[in-house]
Structure formats: structure tokens, C-alpha cells
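C-alpha cells incoming
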């Protein structure tokens, strides 16, 4: 059993001992998919995922509430190399595992949880603690272990503080993982500004160096990283936003200890038929020796289109252009939604190697040219 799974029996016991004073809820998602690719080196894949969620909630007389959530990610995949060569994989991991105390203006949540913020949709510099892929219709992402505190002021300003521990998976745009044995911490303040809002965010972590850049002495590779960000979003008839991030790694070993990223975007719903929503974003990321020097850069433009065909059906398309490598990424989806069922048929035409971000599951599934059919049941 993985070390983190030892928390599950404890939480189940807590559910059992408090079930008579708490309100109990259960829900879940069962997802099946089949992916085929025109690239012969990428084998067809079938998969099944089950995410059951159990929650307890207690509302006290004077307003505070206490609630718990436990959900699991149980999945299995099969790759068909030949009729007699099917390679399978699967696992059961905790997906969410947290406890929360909240009032009308305050929230404290501890455990395995999702933490995300920012206004960008397609190319997110502020994807610090999640790996949400905009092409994923379910927007699934692993969580992080930590404590999150949030306070909401009466003027709609809010302030966040967090501390994380035990996380060593790559998140978002990261190429170096965190040291899971060293605490991470940070915060965010978000304030109303005109007819929108603006925010400043900070995060500090230590980098895990085991196994990288050998044979350099690992003692010289123990370094910290600070992230600074500004972002904002406004409605001026169209929605506009920006996210700007500056990252500094405190080391002289890496060739580019400074990274900066900028996303500017807009969205608008055209009065065509049932309403065509369009999102456009432009993204630049640069790695350099000094904070504002020129260096190695990547640059992308992205467009997303969403059109409802009726009460049940919708069409969506997401398109990226890589200005450095002159590559075009395209993704189309038809979706039909019932009360409990949804069907997704997705087609993609992409380079064989992704340069946008390294979200392993979807970067491998959506490489090259192919189609994916997904069936989802919610209860």
C-alpha cells in the first residue's frame, strides 16, 4: 500500500463514527474511452476510470460548517500492440482527501485538494498546482497535499495562504519537481479593480535534485525557487485578461535560472444562431540568465470556439499555433449530454511530439492524428 493510502481507512472510520450527526452524500463518475491513432507507433488504447466521491457535512447553528471529502481514482488501460499482445496498466490512487471548516467569509481546508486560480483558459502561466488540460471535457487533475486558508472581505476582495508538503509530481509547466520532504508556501491577494479584478501571487518551494544533471555533485544542486505573478480580468463589452509570471531558481548550476511568462486573452459571444463563444490567447515564455535578458523562448497563439447545437448537443474546437516550430495543433469535439450520461467524440491533428506542456496522459493520447470516443456516467 502506498504511504498516502494509509489516510483512507482513517477517514472512512471518521465517516462511520460521525454519520449520525453529519449529512452523508455520495456521487461518482464512470468514464470509458477508446483512442485510435493514424501513427502506427502510437497503439490503440482502451481505458476505464471510476471516481467515487464520499462527503460528510455538518452545519452548526451559528453559521459555521464542517465537511469532509474522500474520492478515489481507480483506472485501467489496455494498449493493443497486436491481437495477441495487449499491454495493461492500472492503479487506485486517492483523488481528493480533505477536511474543511468554513464560515460565510472564511475557509480552512487541509488534505489532498485542488488549488487553482487565474483567468487564462488555454495557456495558463498560473497553472502552479494543477495540470488541467483544456481539451479534457471532464477537467480532471491530480490534487496537492496541503493546507489552504482563504478569507473573503465584504468588498469582494479575498486573500489566500497555503502550505504544501509531500508533493513530488510535475505540475503545469514545471520541468523540475518539488522536494516532497520540504514545505512549500505562498499566498495570493485579489482585489476589485474597476469592472473587474486584479491579483498578486507568490509561491516558494525547494527543487528536488535527485537524479538530475549527473555527474554534478548533488550538494551543489540544492536550491530554492520563488514564483511571482500578477493577473487581472475585466469586462469591457468583451472579456479581457492577462497573467504574468516571473520565476527565479536560486542556483548558478542551471543555464537559465530565470523564467518569465505572459498570457493575454479575450473572449466574446457572437449572436450567431444559438451563440458562438470565442476565446483567444497569446502566450510567450522565456528562459534566461538574468530576469529581463533575452534567452530561449516559446510562443503560442490559441483559439477556442464553442457552439451549442441545442439542449443536448454542442460543438467545440481548440487550435494552437507554435510560432517557433511552425506547428499547428487542432482538436474538435462533439458532445451530447443527458441527465446522467454524456458522450464525447473527439478528433485531433497534432505534431507527434508536444511542445505546449507536458501533461503526460493527454500529450501521449492526443499526439499525431486520431480520434477518441468517451462515454461518461454520473450518479
Amino acid at each position: 500500500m502506498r504511504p498516502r493510502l494509509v489516510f483512507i481507512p482513517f477517514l472512512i472510520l471518521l465517516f462511520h463514527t460521525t454519520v449520525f450527526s453529519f449529512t452523508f452524500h455520495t456521487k461518482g463518475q464512470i468514464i470509458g474511452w477508446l483512442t485510435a491513432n493514424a501513427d502506427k507507433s502510437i497503439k490503440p488504447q482502451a481505458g476505464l476510470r471510476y471516481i467515487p466521491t464520499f462527503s460528510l457535512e455538518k452545519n452548526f447553528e451559528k453559521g459555521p460548517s464542517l465537511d469532509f471529502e474522500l474520492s478515489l481514482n481507480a483506472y485501467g488501460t489496455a494498449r493493443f500492440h497486436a491481437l495477441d499482445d495487449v499491454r495493461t496498466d492500472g492503479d487506485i490512487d486517492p483523488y481528493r482527501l480533505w477536511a474543511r471548516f468554513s464560515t460565510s467569509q472564511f475557509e480552512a481546508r487541509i488534505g489532498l485538494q485542488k488549488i487553482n486560480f487565474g483567468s487564462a483558459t488555454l495557456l495558463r502561466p498560473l497553472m502552479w498546482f494543477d495540470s488541467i488540460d483544456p481539451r479534457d471535457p471532464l477537467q480532471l487533475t491530480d490534487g496537492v497535499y496541503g493546507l489552504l486558508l482563504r478569507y473573503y472581505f465584504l468588498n469582494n476582495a479575498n486573500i489566500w495562504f497555503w502550505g504544501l508538503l509531500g508533493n513530488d509530481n510535475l505540475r503545469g509547466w514545471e520541468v523540475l519537481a518539488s522536494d516532497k520532504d520540504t514545505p512549500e508556501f505562498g499566498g495570493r491577494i485579489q482585489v476589485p479593480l474597476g469592472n473587474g479584478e486584479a491579483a498578486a501571487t507568490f509561491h516558494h518551494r525547494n527543487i528536488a535534485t535527485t537524479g538530475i544533471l549527473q555527474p554534478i555533485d548533488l550538494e551543489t544542486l540544492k536550491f530554492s525557487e520563488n514564483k511571482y505573478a500578477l493577473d487581472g480580468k475585466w469586462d469591457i463589452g468583451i472579456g479581457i485578461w492577462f497573467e504574468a509570471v516571473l520565476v527565479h531558481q536560486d542556483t548558478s548550476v542551471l543555464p537559465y535560472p530565470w523564467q518569465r511568462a505572459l498570457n493575454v486573452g479575450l473572449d466574446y459571444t457572437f449572436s450567431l444562431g444559438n451563440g458562438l463563444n470565442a476565446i483567444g490567447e497569446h502566450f510567450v515564455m522565456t528562459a534566461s540568465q538574468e530576469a529581463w535578458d533575452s534567452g530561449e523562448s516559446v510562443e503560442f497563439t490559441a483559439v477556442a470556439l464553442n457552439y451549442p447545437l441545442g439542449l443536448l448537443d454542442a460543438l467545440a474546437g481548440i487550435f494552437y499555433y507554435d510560432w517557433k516550430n511552425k506547428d499547428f495543433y487542432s482538436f474538435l469535439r462533439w458532445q451530447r449530454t443527458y441527465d446522467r450520461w454524456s458522450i464525447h467524440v473527439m478528433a485531433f491533428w497534432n505534431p507527434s511530439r508536444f511542445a505546449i506542456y507536458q501533461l503526460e496522459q493527454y500529450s501521449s493520447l492526443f499526439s499525431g492524428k486520431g480520434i477518441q470516443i468517451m462515454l461518461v456516467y454520473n450518479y
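note: The mean pLDDT is 90.
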